[in-house]
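Researcher: Quick test of sequence recovery. C-alpha cells follow.
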C-alpha cells in the first residue's frame, strides 16, 4: 500500500529561481558553478545515468571515494549496491543515481576524512537542486535510500522501518528502503545476510513497480 508524504517547497533555504535550468546539463553547470552550500565540504557531485531512466535512486551524500573519483556510489556502500543490483536483475547503466546532498560533508581525523551526517537544515538547503534534478530526469519511480534521502524527497522526517516500501513523494511515485551503508554496519554475519536479502527483495519490487508505472 502506498503512503503519502508532503513535499513542501516552502522550506527550501536556497532557491535560485531567477533563471531556472531547463535541461539536466544546465542544472549540472549551475550546481558546479555554485560550488558548496556548506562550509568545508568537497566538490559538487553530479548524478549519473540516462536522463530517461525509469528508476532514480537517491542516496544521502557522496563519501570520500565518491569525492575523490567524481562519481556517485563507488565506495564500499556503492560496491555493495552494485552487487545487490546484479542480484536483483537491475542494470546500473539503466538507472539514474544521485544524492540528496551534493557535497561530501566531513571532518578531518588525522589524515582521514570522516563522514558527517548532514543536518536537517542542510538537507532543506539542497532540496531545490534535487527536486529540479528529478523533475528533469522524469523517472517513473524515485527511490529513497535511507532516512536523509527520504527527508529530502518528502520534506519531512520519514521513519524507514515504518515506511519501507511504496510511497508517494508529493505527485511522484516512490519507494523507501535502507541505504547500502546500513548493511555494512551490521556486525552479526547472519543478520547482515538477512538484511542484504531483504534489500535485494526491495530492489526486485522496485523493478516491478517501475515496469508497471
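Model:
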Amino acid at each position: 500500500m502506498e503512503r503519502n508524504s508532503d513535499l513542501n517547497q516552502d522550506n527550501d533555504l536556497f532557491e535560485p529561481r531567477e533563471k531556472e535550468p531547463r535541461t539536466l546539463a544546465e542544472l549540472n553547470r549551475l550546481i558546479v558553478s555554485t560550488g558548496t552550500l556548506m562550509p568545508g565540504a568537497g566538490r559538487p557531485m553530479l548524478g549519473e545515468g540516462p536522463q530517461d531512466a525509469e528508476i532514480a535512486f537517491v542516496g544521502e551524500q557522496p563519501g570520500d571515494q565518491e569525492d575523490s573519483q567524481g562519481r556517485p556510489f563507488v565506495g564500499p556502500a556503492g560496491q555493495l549496491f552494485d552487487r545487490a543490483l546484479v542480484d536483483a536483475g537491475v542494470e546500473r547503466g539503466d538507472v539514474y543515481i544521485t544524492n540528496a546532498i551534493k557535497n561530501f560533508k566531513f571532518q578531518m581525523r588525522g589524515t582521514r576524512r570522516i563522514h558527517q551526517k548532514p543536518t536537517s537544515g542542510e538537507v532543506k538547503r539542497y532540496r531545490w537542486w534535487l527536486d529540479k534534478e528529478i523533475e528533469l530526469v522524469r523517472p517513473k519511480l524515485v527511490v529513497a535510500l535511507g532516512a536523509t534521502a527520504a527527508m529530502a524527497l518528502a520534506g519531512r522526517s520519514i521513519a524507514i522501518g515504518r515506511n519501507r516500501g511504496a510511497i508517494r513523494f508529493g505527485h511522484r511515485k516512490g519507494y523507501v528502503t535502507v541505504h547500502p551503508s546500513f548493511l555494512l554496519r551490521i556486525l552479526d554475519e547472519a543478520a547482515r545476510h538477512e538484511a542484504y536479502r531483504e534489500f535485494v527483495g526491495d530492489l526486485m519490487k522496485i523493478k516491478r513497480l517501475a515496469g508497471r508505472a
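The longest helix spans residues 189-212.
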